[in-house]
């Protein structure tokens, strides 16, 4: 089964920019993997941020953006705010099913 | 706005069947796909499967032999059944809308223990 890998942890300063990536064990991630991104804070359910690579939900702050970067799906957080500290998960469509990434813990420090 | 709420037993005995229901309020269950996801304590998310409002479920191959997802449009609900549970099935179970998982329920913790 496909394994989807993310950076275990990243640290960013307030106001800075950080890029999280999402890689598939099957090869380069393309738009056909329909990448989605989710934010989860402790004790809360995940919240959807992006779908189909770079589409924002109506509630998604403008500082969150999605792309394909070097064969991976990417989530970029710009002008990072303290409230962006959270765990972030990607989700890929592969071989007819969906697979979550391993998650990235983003610390704002 | 659309809201989802999971319900079901919080404790299930080993080898028995876990049964959960997700009630959709504020909107119709029709014309969407509906998904189940779980998260063991302190761990990451695992996709369980989804179903369309008309049926036709798709399951995670690692759970396929034990899982059933069904939908009841008359009650605006969809359900999850997981048979032959073990302690490895202890997790917070979430329901969500669509395959993009745009809206999530609050989740319900199911513990498998004797």
Inertia-based shape of chain A? globular
Q: Can you give the helix content of chain B as a percent range?
A: under 10%
**Which segments of chain A are poorly predicted (pLDDT under 50) over 5 or more consecutive residues?**
none
* Strand segment tally of chain A: 11
Q: Indicate the proportion of strand residues of chain B.
A: over 45%
Strand content of chain A: over 45%
The global form of chain B is globular
Q: Are there runs of chain B of 5+ residues with pLDDT below 50, and where?
A: none
Listing every helix as H and every strand as E from the N terminus to the C terminus, the arrangement of chain A reads: EEEEEEEEEEE
Largest sheet composition of chain A: 7 strands, mixed
Q: Major beta sheet of chain B, specifics?
A: 6 strands, mixed
- The radius of gyration over CA of chain A amounts to 13 Å
The succession of helices and strands of chain B, N to C, reads EEEEEEEEEE
Give a structural overview.
The complex is a heterodimer of chains A (109) and B (114). With 109 residues, chain A is mostly beta strands. In chain A, 0% of the residues lie in helices and 51% in strands. Chain A is built from no helices and eleven strands. Chain A has strands at 4-6, 9-12, 18-24, 36-40, 47-51, 55-56, 64-69, 72-77, 86-94, 97-100, 104-108. In chain A, strands 2, 4, 5, 6, 9, 10 and 11 form a seven-stranded mixed sheet that branches. Chain A is globular and about 40 Å long. The mean pLDDT of chain A is 97. By secondary structure, chain B is mainly β. In chain B, β5 and β6 form a beta hairpin. The model of chain B has no long low-confidence stretch (mean pLDDT 96). Chain B contains no helices and ten strands. In chain B, the strands form two sheets. Chain B has a six-stranded mixed sheet, with no helix packed on it. Classes of the chains: A mainly beta (109), B mainly beta (114).
């Amino acid at each position: 089964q496909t394994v989807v890998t993310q950076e275990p942890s990243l640290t960013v300063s307030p106001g800075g920019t950080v890029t999280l990536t999402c890689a598939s064990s099957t090869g380069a991630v393309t738009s056909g993997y329909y990448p989605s991104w989710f934010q989860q804070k402790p004790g809360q359910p995940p919240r959807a941020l992006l779908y189909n690579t770079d589409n924002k939900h109506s509630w998604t702050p403008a500082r969150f953006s999605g792309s394909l970067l070097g064969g991976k799906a990417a989530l970029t957080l710009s002008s990072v705010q303290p409230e962006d500290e959270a765990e972030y998960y990607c989700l890929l469509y592969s071989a007819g099913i969906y697979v979550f990434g391993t998650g990235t813990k983003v610390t704002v420090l | 706005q659309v809201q989802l709420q999971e319900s079901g037993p919080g404790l299930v005995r080993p080898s028995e069947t876990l049964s959960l229901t997700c009630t959709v309020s504020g909107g119709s269950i029709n014309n969407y796909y509906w998904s189940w996801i779980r998260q063991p304590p302190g761990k990451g998310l695992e996709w369980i499967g989804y179903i369309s409002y008309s049926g036709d479920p798709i399951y995670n191959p690692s759970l396929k032999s034990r899982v059933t997802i069904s939908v009841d449009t008359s009650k605006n609900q969809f359900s999850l059944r997981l048979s032959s549970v073990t302690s490895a099935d202890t997790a917070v179970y979430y329901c969500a809308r669509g395959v993009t998982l745009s809206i999530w329920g609050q989740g319900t913790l199911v513990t498998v223990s004797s």
